Amino acid sequence: MIINRTSKHRSSSMRIVLGVAGLLITSTAAADSASGTLTYQSKSGPLVVNVANVYLVQTRDAVSGKMIRKLVFSATEISGKLKSCATMICPESQIGEGMTVELDSGSRLNYWFAGNGQRVQYSGSAQRDALALSTDSPQRVAGKFAVDDSASGGVKANVTFDATLFKQ
Fold first, then answer.
1. Are residues 149 and 90 in the same domain?
2. What pLDDT score does 42 carry?
3. Which residue, of 78, 99, 140, 167, is most buried by count of CB atoms within 10 Å of its CB?
4. 12 and 59 housed in the same domain
5. Residues 11 and 48 in one domain
6. pTM score of the predicted model
7. Same domain, 81 and 105
8. Are residues 48 and 4 in the same domain?
9. How much is the pLDDT for 2?
10. Torsion region of 124: left, alpha or beta (phi above 0 gives left; psi -120 to 50 gives alpha)
């Protein structure tokens, strides 16, 4: 019986330690702030998304298999939703209003826009010079993303951000 009590005590202590560690990790993993707008000319008029949050995630590209970084811009706080993502495409499904930008996927920057609760979606690519970075490391990316594809029916984006690695 003494062994069982000790095992139960150790088990309870371990649960407490793991619970506290989980709270600490959860409380530190949050959105970084971003500012700017994403504008898309829909059939019913201009759709403007005010970006407030940015997340830097690292994920495996489904085609090449190589690791890439992705910026996730959102009008709302979605860190809880992003924590549960296990695939490369998952961040896009978590955004109601915002944009993702793939940083390491090739000679161009692939992006995807969502607005009006994902009722409006647009994907495109931009020249690499649309991204002006003041910091570019595996753990942090800061700068400005500015592209204007409105003449071809696309998105106009002008966003300033400073993102630390949120999820790998």
1. yes
2. 87
3. 99
4. no
5. no
6. 0.78
7. yes
8. no
9. 43
10. beta
Low-confidence ranges of the chain (pLDDT < 50): 1-28
Could you write out the three-class secondary structure of the chain? CHHHHHHHHHHHHHHHHHHHHHHHHHHHCCCEEEEEEEEEEECCEEEEEEEEEEEEEEEECCCCCCEEEEEEEECCCCHHHHHCCCCCCHHHHHCCCEEEEECCCCCEEEEEEEECCCCEEEEEEEEHHHEEEEEECCCEEEEEEEEECHHHCCEEEEEEEEEEEEEC
Q: Largest Cα–Cα distance of the chain, in whole Å?
A: 77
Residues 20 and 50 in one domain: no
Tokens of 70: 């992705």
Number of structural domains in the chain: 2
Residue with tokens 């930008």: 101
Tell the residue number behind the tokens 């993993």, with chain if given: 29
Residue 7 structural domain: 1-29
Q: Which two tokens stand for residue 23?
A: 């709270």
Beta bridge partners of 136: 141
Specify which residues 48 forms β-bridges with.
39
Cβ proximity of 42 and 150 under 8 Å: no
Q: Locate 46 and state its tokens.
A: 């201009």
Let me know how long the chain is. Answer: 168
Contact call for residues 53 and 160 (beta carbons, < 8 A): no
